[in-house]
């Protein structure tokens, strides 16, 4: 009995790890939501988060993998630089920039297309084999189409709010910053963020074959990504006061928890990618959205909608958001990583 249980646990260990990883990332949402409501600049948050993560990981990478780590060459360092630029600096900063021009709901919804983009790119690069005559191959194609159709439906489908079961357990005072909606620039930034994330998964799988030490790889990516984000943040935010973080404040705990999560979970994701491939890791992203919505509904008292068709459109598939709806959209949960 015990042997059977251990064998089953070993078989589904990547699934369990990815499930726990998404729970941890879902909790990151609550910390970042509270920090942003206190005025923390998102780009500064990304910089501090990954710089802290790198500082935590480099000692472990040095001592745990010093005998198995390949020699660092200029070509490998260039790949690390590209991975960090695409997966950390570009994807996250594009994600936060898109929130300025669309609604959090729209960004969170398109976030679920990352597994589909990853699958499509993996097929194009022949990293994922699809046999249309095999039931598993047909299931992959059908799942991708259903995912894209579901995202489109959720984007257009709203409805009356579900009655809250109880009052909010935690109250976060959100700042009422203006949203400069642009339904051309916003979706472009959102899709670009999702595609860069999918490319990041693919490139990680390629780099892992040359540099199979996942802790060292994660440390390099977080460190270089933090430095790249610092350059990007300095270009956008020139005030020195914006970089000041008070000890034991909401911003401090948000950066600390997120940095620890990035240090631990990136390593776990790379290990799962090494075992199961990039598509396997990417398909768990949708689970994070579900967890955030459910936890926001139960803990924060966020509104949860049953869905309704929006009859008017400003763009072929994008709804016109009126003043009343805009106020509601600004209160909906954000998916932040």
TrEMBL record:
Keyword vocabulary terms for this entry: Membrane, Transmembrane, Transmembrane helix
DNA damage is among the record's keywords: no
Membrane-spanning ranges: 12-32, 44-64, 76-94, 106-125, 137-157, 183-203, 215-240, 252-272, 279-300
InterPro entries, A to Z: EamA_dom, EmrE-like, WAT1-related
Stored SUPFAM superfamilies: Multidrug resistance efflux transporter EmrE
Subcellular location: Membrane
Pfam hit, one: EamA
Domain EamA, residue spans: 16-154, 185-310
Membrane topology: Multi-pass membrane protein
Domain of life: Eukaryota
Keyword check for Mitochondrion: no
Similarity comment: family membership: Belongs to the drug/metabolite transporter (DMT) superfamily. Plant drug/metabolite exporter (P-DME) (TC 2.A.7.4) family.
Protein name: WAT1-related protein
Organism for this UniProt entry: Gossypium hirsutum (Upland cotton)
Top-level taxonomy: Eukaryota, Viridiplantae, Streptophyta, Embryophyta, Tracheophyta
């Amino acid at each position: 009995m015990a042997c059977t249980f251990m064998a089953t646990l070993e078989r589904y260990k990547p699934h369990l790890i990815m499930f726990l990883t998404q729970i941890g990332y879902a909790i990151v949402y609550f910390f970042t939501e509270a920090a942003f409501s206190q005025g923390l600049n998102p780009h500064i948050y990304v910089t501090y988060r990954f710089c802290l993560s790198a500082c935590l990981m480099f000692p472990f990478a040095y001592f745990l993998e010093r005998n198995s780590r390949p020699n660092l060459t200029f070509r490998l360092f260039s790949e690390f630089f590209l991975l960090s630029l695409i997966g950390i600096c570009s994807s996250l900063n594009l994600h936060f920039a898109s929130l300025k021009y669309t609604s959090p709901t729209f960004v969170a919804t398109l976030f679920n297309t990352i597994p589909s983009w990853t699958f499509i790119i993996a097929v194009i690069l022949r990293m994922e084999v699809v046999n249309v005559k095999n039931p598993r191959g047909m299931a992959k194609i059908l799942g991708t189409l259903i995912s894209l159709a579901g995202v489109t439906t959720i984007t257009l489908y709203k409805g009356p709010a579900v009655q809250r079961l109880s009052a909010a357990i935690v109250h976060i005072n959100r700042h009422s910053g203006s949203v400069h909606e642009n339904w051309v620039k916003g979706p472009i930034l959102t899709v670009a963020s999702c595609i860069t994330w999918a490319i990041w998964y693919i490139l990680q799988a390629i780099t892992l074959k040359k540099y199979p030490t996942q802790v060292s790889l994660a440390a390099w990516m977080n460190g270089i990504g933090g430095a790249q984000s610092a350059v990007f943040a300095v270009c956008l935010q020139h005030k020195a006061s914006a970089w000041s973080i008070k000890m034991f404040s909401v911003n401090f705990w948000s950066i600390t928890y997120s940095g620890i999560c990035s240090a631990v979970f990136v390593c776990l994701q790379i290990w799962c990618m090494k075992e199961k491939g990039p598509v396997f890791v990417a398909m768990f992203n949708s689970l994070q959205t579900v967890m955030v919505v459910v936890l926001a509904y139960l803990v924060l008292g966020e509104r949860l909608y049953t869905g309704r068709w929006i009859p008017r459109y400003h763009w072929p598939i994008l709804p016109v958001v009126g003043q009343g709806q805009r106020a509601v959209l600004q209160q909906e949960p954000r998916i932040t990583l």
